[in-house]
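Researcher: Here's a chain I'd like modeled. Treat it as a single chain, no partners, no ligands.
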Amino acid sequence: MRLSLRGAAQVLTPPEPGLPYLRGDRARELRLEPGSVAVAGGRIAALDDDAGADVVVDAAGCAVVAGFVDCHTHLPFAGWRAGEYEQKVTGVPYEEIARSGGGIAASARALAQADDDAVLAQAETLAREMLVHGTTTLEAKTGYGLSVEGELRSVDLARRLADRVAQPLTVTGLFAHSVPPGVERQAWMDEVDGLAASCDVDALDIYVESVAFANADLARLGEIAAREGVPLRAHVEQFNTNRSVPVALEAGARSVDHLACLHPDDLAPLARSECAAVLLPGAEVLGAEEVAPGRALADAGAICVLATDCNPGTSPVQSLPLVIGMAVRRYGWSVREALAAVTLNAAWVLGRSDDTGSIEPGKRADLLVLDGPAEHVPYRFGRNPVAAVVAAGELVWVRPDQAWRVR
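Model: Modeled as a single isolated chain. Structure tokens:
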């Protein structure tokens, strides 16, 4: 099918073709200029109109941007943990909730009690909501199994979810999410080693924190990831300054995620590396966490990324436009920096930036038509600015009040 997004007030394009990511200075060079985008055969054909297109979207007054990439979610999971949120807002620290059987352990119990159909139905609903808010590529993690059998089931659920949603889905083995009750940490790391060797996952991840794993475990997982030939990712410096970033960099990590408690001495080495800094303002805001040094990271030249961290406990958020709004205010970023962080840079984290994440001829046609200028995404906080979603060249969603644009 041939499709034309015609006459947009703004088309978001990179400062030059073929870039795998955009550091701070290059992110600020993203172009927002009037134009059209032609699509054919599921690919971006040209930065021009197609007079013979089968479908035309009138993009007058709109911004056309690359589809959003959510590179850090915890789908699929079972149920929610609203009671814990009330505990947190009334003063109970997350670490205390976790040590009393809440947190990850509570989600593990919920997953164990839910049947596969219920888990997948909830995850499909959330993925659909993400699509409506512009997410055309996403990640899923294991981590709520808390047993060998449970983690094997989680991998299977994630792969089955990939077959049921519109978005390409990357599966990350977060086998080192929490130490199962009654198991020694090192014994569980032995099981993590076995799971990494036997499971079909696209990356490996670990949670380094006072209630989870240690830097030595991060180093070991780095060796396992290198052996298995998959990227290493790490949840670090969320609640405490554990100095995990140097360990992750030494292990060749693709990303370090959270960073609310990043040590100042670790900022410059991270910014010089090709390890992305994935910031999760939803978790920061809802958990009353410290503010990650987003402005300093961008100014130092880091590969800055945003994600929802969609999970049932610390960030029950599905909307990347909402995350953009939080990040722009919280970190002092421009809209261009925030858009880079949910498009090309997020695609880099998932190893997909050669095929998605920017509007360039030849790339997969994952595109969004926003109902106004890009600057309105963070400014008109809390609303959905997405008028239409194109995924792999197909018009997969149009907001009802914007249907007049399609002909």
